[in-house]
Design the sequence.
């Protein structure tokens, strides 16, 4: 059974820092991996999606990488801003319809 | 274009009561999903649908039923609510299983 973990569970950084969030999964037979952002009391917003054949995806200050063989993905946020404060979740999709989510990393960017 | 909407936003039920959560999307998406989110556990898939008239079980289907009579609507029913079903429920939809767009969530408390 696929399991997804995220480290750290919470992170607090000063504004302007570059930071890395980690996602690990136990079964490398994935179709894609997606990073989401969740603001308190809100739904999830998709940030980046990486297909299993890809190594990375970039959007603005965000860069996500995927290493299927080691079961890892990282989300890199450059020049963090207070508006980046949220919970970040990763989710892997297998070749069926199963999406498995990690528990999330709660990020606080201090002004 | 409202995207994915969920009704109601909040609900309190007594043990044994029944209710239906409504998810509606106006993006003509084929795929729709119901998740529950519990603290520290990430999102878990309850049921999903790959098109009008179809439904399938996800990871945690027990105690829930679903129906997809119209393409734009996906209903989640609790026939006899239990305190263990206290959670935040999210609906999502997608044009394929490639990506998901989430609703704002329904916070359900069962006493």
Sequence:
């Amino acid at each position: 059974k696929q399991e997804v973990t995220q480290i750290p569970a919470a992170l607090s950084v000063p504004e302007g820092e570059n930071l890395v969030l980690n996602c690990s999964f136990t079964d490398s037979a994935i179709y894609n991996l997606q990073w989401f952002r969740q603001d308190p009391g809100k739904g999830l917003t998709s940030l980046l999606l990486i297909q299993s054949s890809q190594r990375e995806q970039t959007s603005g200050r965000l860069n996500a990488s995927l290493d299927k063989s080691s079961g890892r993905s990282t989300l890199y946020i450059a020049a963090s801003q207070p508006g980046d404060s949220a919970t970040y979740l990763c989710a892997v999709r297998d070749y069926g319809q199963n999406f498995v989510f990690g528990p999330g990393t709660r990020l606080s960017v201090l002004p | 274009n409202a995207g994915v909407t969920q009704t109601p936003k909040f609900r309190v039920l007594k043990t044994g009561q029944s209710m239906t959560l409504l998810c509606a999307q106006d993006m003509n998406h084929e795929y729709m999903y119901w998740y529950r989110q519990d603290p520290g556990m990430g999102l878990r898939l309850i049921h999903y649908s790959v098109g009008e008239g179809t439904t399938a079980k996800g990871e945690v289907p027990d105690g829930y039923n679903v129906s997809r009579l119209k393409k734009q609507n996906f209903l989640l029913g609790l026939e006899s609510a239990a305190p263990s079903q206290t959670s935040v429920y999210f609906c999502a939809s997608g044009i394929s299983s490639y990506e998901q767009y989430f609703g704002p969530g329904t916070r359900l408390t069962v006493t």
Summary: The mean pLDDT of chain B is 93. The longest strand of chain B covers residues 31-38.
